[in-house]
Amino acid sequence: MPLSVIILAAGQSSRMGQIKQLMPFRQSTVLGEVINNFLLSAVSEIILVLGHRAEEVMKTIASKPTKIVINPDYRRGMSTSIIAGLNHVDTQTRAVMLALGDQPLIGSLTINRLIRAFYRHDRGIIIPTYRGKRGHPIIFAIKYKEELLKLKGDVGGRQIIKDHPNDVLSVEVASESVVVDFDTKNDYQAHVG
Description:
Layout: E1 3-9, E2 24-25, E3 28-29, H1 30-39, E4 45-50, H2 54-61, E5 67-70, H3 78-86, E6 95-100, H4 108-120, E7 125-130, E8 133-134, E9 138-141, H5 145-149, H6 158-163, E10 168-172, H7 185-191
Parallel strand pairs: 1-4, 1-6, 4-5, 7-10
Antiparallel strand pairs: 2-3, 6-9, 7-8, 7-9
């Protein structure tokens, strides 16, 4: 059954001081590694939302089988990228996974664990946790599409999660990767090499 991932990679990387999507990581770039991890997973489609310096980023990932969406409104916050991605999701998809383009440490095993949890339980929102701390990526059943399309500003699905506590399943994972993103040079340096 189809499950789509929307990778949010439109931001300006203002705290990093340079465009983090293009920073070297392993044999690729930060964003390239994120995409590679999803290509090795059980997701049925990868939607990549770009904004800041989109042309430059596209050149580095052109060979990867992703659906690229350009968000011209990316400066107005994460919600605009979620909406841009949702508007290109396959009509057959059962759920949407929202992933961050600066979390290259999340491997396909972790991604697949979340997908299995979605299909094995009757909950519509799946959130990974590491030592009790909530992280990403988060899965929303397609029934939440309309609520996600109404998001405003620099927010993800936090309000929807708050509004539907009985439909949330927290999945404890063994990897801290779900709570690690690369916002600053220190974050990056701590995990590179």
